[in-house]
């Protein structure tokens, strides 16, 4: 394993190249939140079967879970140890998966990791604080506004729908501030998206707003490029195929998936467990009848 300071030289261009290709090919990087090692393997196998690259990311809570409930998370020790352990595991298994793999952190708010935000929230940090990350050439995500629902200890379930839509002026402010520092960034613009499970009709996704955001930035730049901004999609679970395709068509290069995968994981364990229990019950019944 290389020393930390040497990692950017090896890894700097690969995520950037993949993200740049997604914006020109109408493909978004599937991004799965992983917790135990089995979810990592499942994500890699799904990516292999789909012949697609994949982003594997850990939230603060997910990293702590990877370390195990027996590890104290005082001073974030559990989350830090879990994130490092997961990174080692992924780096060991990814080369034989047959697909490109990118490591990422999800919702690393400054209040949790004060020395560096893995994903910057505009209301938690000043832009200039992150200029020091530019030489690392690490990809940084900037979430603007609010994503509804609840995830990783951040609860926005009571937020009104109007607060879930980002304004184009906000995106332009981020773009013109970060562009001189580094090209390695993407923006999560709220277009009605929500974390977690929600009832149909309760969420109004507006992927058409992303096209207007792109046009606004292009106009400010005086550019003919139709999609100058790399956008990413938080709260991708339970979104329809049509909504996702429209968002990708308007410059979304990365889609986060968590809740849907948790339910699929739980369902698989439940079905396997129930099948085993039913089989055991029938075996017991047969044994009783043979007496």
From TrEMBL:
What protein name applies here?
Fructose-bisphosphate aldolase
Keywords assigned by UniProt, alphabetized:
Glycolysis, Lyase, Metal-binding, Zinc
GO biological process: one example = gluconeogenesis
Reaction(s) this enzyme catalyzes, per UniProt: beta-D-fructose 1,6-bisphosphate = D-glyceraldehyde 3-phosphate + dihydroxyacetone phosphate
Known InterPro entries for this protein?
A: Aldolase_TIM (IPR013785), FBA_II (IPR000771), Fruct_bisP_bact (IPR006411)
Similarity comment: Belongs to the class II fructose-bisphosphate aldolase family.
Q: Which Pfam families did the record assign?
A: F_bP_aldolase
Q: What does this protein do?
A: Catalyzes the aldol condensation of dihydroxyacetone phosphate (DHAP or glycerone-phosphate) with glyceraldehyde 3-phosphate (G3P) to form fructose 1,6-bisphosphate (FBP) in gluconeogenesis and the reverse reaction in glycolysis.
| Classification lineage | Eukaryota, Fungi, Dikarya, Ascomycota, Pezizomycotina
């Amino acid at each position: 394993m290389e020393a930390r300071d040497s990692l950017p030289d090896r890894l700097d261009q690969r995520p950037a190249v993949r993200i740049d290709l997604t914006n020109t090919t109408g493909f978004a990087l599937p991004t799965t939140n992983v917790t135990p090692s089995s979810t990592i393997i499942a994500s890699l196998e799904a990516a292999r079967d789909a012949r697609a690259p994949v982003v594997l990311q850990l939230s603060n809570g997910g990293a702590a879970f990877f370390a195990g409930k027996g590890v104290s998370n005082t001073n974030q020790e559990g989350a830090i140890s879990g994130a490092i352990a997961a990174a080692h595991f992924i780096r060991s298994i990814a080369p034989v998966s047959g697909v490109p793999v990118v490591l990422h952190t999800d919702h690393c708010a400054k209040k949790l990791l004060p020395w560096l935000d893995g994903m910057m929230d505009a209301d938690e940090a000043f832009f200039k604080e992150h200029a020091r990350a530019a030489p690392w050439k690490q990809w940084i995500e900037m979430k603007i506004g609010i994503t509804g629902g609840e995830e990783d200890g951040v609860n926005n379930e009571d937020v009104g729908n109007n607060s879930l839509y980002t304004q184009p002026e906000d995106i332009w402010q981020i773009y013109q501030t970060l562009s001189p520092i580094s090209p390695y960034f993407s923006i999560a613009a709220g277009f009605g998206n929500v974390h977690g499970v929600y009832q149909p009709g309760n969420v109004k996704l507006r992927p058409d707003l992303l096209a207007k955001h792109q046009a606004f930035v292009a106009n400010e730049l005086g550019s003919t490029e139709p999609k100058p901004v790399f956008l990413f999609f938080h709260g991708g679970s339970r979104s329809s195929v049509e909504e996702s395709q429209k968002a990708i068509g308007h410059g979304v290069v990365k889609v986060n998936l968590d809740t849907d995968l948790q339910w699929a994981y739980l369902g698989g364990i439940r079905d396997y467990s129930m099948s085993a229990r039913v089989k055991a019950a029938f075996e017991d019944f047969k044994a009783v009848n043979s007496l």
